[in-house]
Automatic annotation (TrEMBL):
InterPro entries: Beta-ketoacyl_synthase (IPR000794), Ketoacyl_synth_AS (IPR018201), Ketoacyl_synth_C (IPR014031), Ketoacyl_synth_N (IPR014030), Thiolase-like (IPR016039). Keywords: Transferase. Residues 8-167 form the Beta-ketoacyl synthase-like N-terminal domain. Belongs to the thiolase-like superfamily. Beta-ketoacyl-ACP synthases family. It comes from Akkermansia biwaensis. This is 3-oxoacyl-ACP synthase. It comes from the Bacteria. PANTHER family: BETA KETOACYL-ACYL CARRIER PROTEIN SYNTHASE, POLYKETIDE SYNTHASE-RELATED. Residues 175-280 form the Beta-ketoacyl synthase C-terminal domain. PROSITE patterns: KS3_1.
Length: 325
């Protein structure tokens, strides 16, 4: 599916994801005409330039237009006939979740009435994996338990998702908040105190009194630095003994780099549409000890869903959504 004579592998994946989201949303040419398009990716088509992949079209490093990050959005806008604004975000592992937040922001500002957010990454080539390996961020033992004592790094995967957003007053899933900040700490690591992430969590939970159930889907990358930073952020906001309901997706999917945040959000929302929350794998550990749900949970009434993501270089993102089952 990623072998195209015209598009680089990542551009082709962005197009496939966008088409699926548009079809599920029931959008036709009229809805797409003035929609906004926001695409997030850490690496874009870089892997296609660095080395050939079986079943995927290799790209020369100076091939035009696939050497441009903007090609990800350009390809989708051309093929789907989207004439509204498009933007490409390259904010590392948070890029896909940023795309959802920026799409919602454009709608709230009255720029457009609907928007399409796409996030993806295809990092599984020798050259890119080599750089992660040299940094010490890749898992050596393959233990995909982000907060467990045996976790020693990221288990990288490929993936992405697309989410269609439009203004609606009907009950369902609604994007509430999109908040971001920066650690200004290190090009690789995260501050161990987790204060910047805690600030974002407190902002989206302002006014939350606990009467509406809360579910948090954390970044949970598997690196020691992320585990420590996130653990301390959760303790700062909730206290060690009163953590919210946590649902971790990377133990199921691996870490899809810039596509991870939107992929995990889309999987959560796919379960929500069926009236439940996804289970955690039975082997995962809680960030502060204790148990995490290892079974699907039926949804009843209203729930607040919070998704976070973080990037190398210190970019933090938190989205909150209200769900009416």
């Amino acid at each position: 599916m990623l072998c195209s004579r015209r598009n680089g592998p990542a551009s082709q994946l962005a197009l496939l994801l966008a088409r699926q989201a548009v079809e599920e949303a029931g959008w036709g040419p009229h809805e797409l005409e003035d929609a906004a398009l926001v695409v997030g990716s850490s690496r874009g088509n870089a892997s296609g330039w660095l080395s050939p992949w079986p079943g995927r079209r290799p790209m020369k490093i100076l091939a035009v237009p696939n050497s441009l990050h903007s090609e990800l959005a350009s390809c989708v806008s051309i093929e789907l006939g989207i004439h509204g604004p498009y933007h490409v975000l390259a904010s590392g592992c948070a890029a896909g979740l940023d795309a959802v937040g920026m799409a919602g922001m454009l709608m709230r500002q009255g720029v457009v009435k609907r928007a399409l957010a796409v996030g993806l990454d295809l990092p599984l080539c020798r050259e890119l994996l080599g750089t992660y390996w040299a940094s010490g961020m890749l898992s050596r033992n393959g233990v995909n338990d982000p907060y467990g004592s045996g976790a020693d790094g990221m288990c990288i995967s490929e993936g992405g998702a697309a989410v269609a957003l439009e203004m609606s007053a009907e009950p369902g899933i609604h994007l509430r908040d999109y908040v971001v900040n920066s650690d200004a700490f290190s090009p690789l690591g995260m501050p161990p105190d987790g204060k910047r992430l805690a600030e974002l969590l407190e902002r989206v939970l302002k006014g939350w009194d606990g009467r509406v159930p809360l579910t948090v889907c954390p970044h949970a990358s598997g690196t020691a630095g992320n585990a420590l930073s996130e653990r301390n952020a959760l303790e700062l906001v909730f206290g060690r003994d009163s953590l919210p309901d946590l649902r971790m997706m990377k133990p199921w999917t691996g870490h899809a780099i810039g596509g991870s945040g939107i992929l995990e959000l889309a999987l959560m929302l796919a379960f929500v549409r069926e009236g439940s929350l996804p289970p955690n794998p039975g082997w995962v550990s809680s960030p502060c000890g204790g148990a995490v749900p290892a079974a699907e949970t039926a949804l009843e009434g209203e729930r607040l869903l919070v998704k976070s993501a973080a990037s190398m270089g210190g970019h933090n993102v938190v989205l909150s959504l209200s769900v009416n089952a």
